[in-house]
Structures are given as structure tokens and as C-alpha cells.
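Bit of a strange request maybe. I'm writing a small parser for C-alpha cell strings and I need a real example to test against, not something I typed by hand. Could someone generate the C-alpha cells for this chain?
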Amino acid sequence: MVEIPFLRESQPVIGQAETIHPLVRRVVCGNPSPFTYHGTNSYIVGQGRVAIIDPGPVDDAHLHALLHAVRNETVTHIIVTHTHRDHSPGAAALKVATGAATWAFGPHGVRPGPGVEAGGDTDFHPDHRLADGESIAGAGWTLGAVHTPGHTSNHLSFALAEANALFSADHVMAWSTSVVSPPDGDMGAYMASLRKLLAREDVRYWPGHGPALPDPKPYVAAVLAHREEREQDILRCLAEGLDSVPAIVARLYTHVPQKMHAAAGRSVLAHLIHMVQTGRVRCDGAPTTEARFCL
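Reply from user aminoacidic:
Good idea to test on real output. This should exercise your parser:
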């Protein structure tokens, strides 16, 4: 069984800017949940003329905390890693307050399944679109866009060249694995994005929730191996006649609280869709949580 070396952190001070690198400050939003840990991490990049990554949800206290942290500074860029409601909706009010333009891969792709995570922010439309490999530069900092679809189709990570570090958002987090929820979440794309990160040489990740991840390559390799192992577990369930998402969840997630089984079901479904697409599993129709699957 693959063991992922998760990292936890004590409760951070909500709404207070914490310097985590000479070029980076973190401000944690007070929106804790089973999916957000202590809350959403917003990052301020640079000094004097700065970028803010992931303004978070609509939250007046968090907006005021961000504006207080950059008082006497100029916000030149508002950057959104992906359009879930715990990351992007705060961009609208921050844009009004600062006059800065928004930058992202694009608007939300497909509305995710009901009751999972914070849902898709279909209202967000960036002022500027960023493709994989494009860069944004500011006063003493350079951020390179790395398209890492899977958690969402429009998910971007951002490489801070001056620190050889990556803002990994919700693609890779140190405290937990990422939920991949169809139809916008795509397990095949998620696993391919993990392999893409393994080819990079970043020395540290700053994720969308929870603590920084030092020495990320072994961790990413463990997450990928866990996903590959989960697919083997699902194949064994199917071989034993467990042919539905609820039956597979009940077998594989006995250690997970019942209230989290709906989210686990979305992940199992994402795996099954990927396995149908790659010809390893068959389905009696469109792959859904109500469908029947077989080898």
C-alpha cells in the first residue's frame, strides 16, 4: 500500500500576512472545511508593485486583510489558478478596490458534480487569458503558467522563477490528496499533470490550502503511485462482482467517515471514466454514479 507523506500545520493566524519567502507573503482566509483545511491560501508576490494569487471566496474580512497587507503598495496583477468558489470569486471585489486586471487560463469549463467541494465559479471571466508556458513579469518577479488540468480543466500552477518554486494551488497539496470530480474534473488529465510536474525541477510547492511542500518530487511520485494503486483496487473490486460506484466506495473507503463518501464516490467515478476511456473497463451506458461497470 502506497503511503503518502502528508504534512500538517498548526492553526495559522487567519487574515494576517505571513512572509514565507523574501518575495512571497501568505494570507489565509477564514473558510475552513474538509476540502479547504484551515482555509484558502492567498499569496502576495513581490514588494511595492505586487501580484495577488487566488483572492479566495467572497469574504469581506479576507478582502480587508489582503488590502491591509498591501497598503502603500500597488497591485498590478490579480491571478486566479482555477475557478472553484474558494479561489476565484474574491477577484471581483479586489479588482474594484485596486484597479488591477485579472489573469487566468479561462472561465470555468463544466459545472462539477453537486455537493462536492465549493462548486464551480461560472461568473469569473479573466481580463487576460494565459496559456501553458506563458509568463507574467513584475518588479523583481516572474511567474510562468503551467497548465495542470485534472482538478479542474482550467487549473494553472505558477512557477516563480526567482525562487525555483511552484504555486501548485489544488493540484498538489501537502495535507491531502486533491478531489477530482467529473465532469470538469478529469482523472486521466490529473495523472498526466502529475507526470508533467515530475519532469520539473521545482524545489518547493506553495499550495492552495495548507503548508508548503519541500522536496516535492518524492511526494508527487507517491500521489501518482497512490492513484495508480487505486485503479488496481477498483479492478479487483470489479473482478469480485462489485459493479457500482457505491459498492466500490463501501469496500475501499471503510477508513473514511461516511460524510466523505460522496466525495470519495466522485473520485472513484473519475477513475472509472478514465479506465473506460483507456479500454480497461466497460460500462452499461454513460459512466455515472448510477451506472454498472464490468471488466
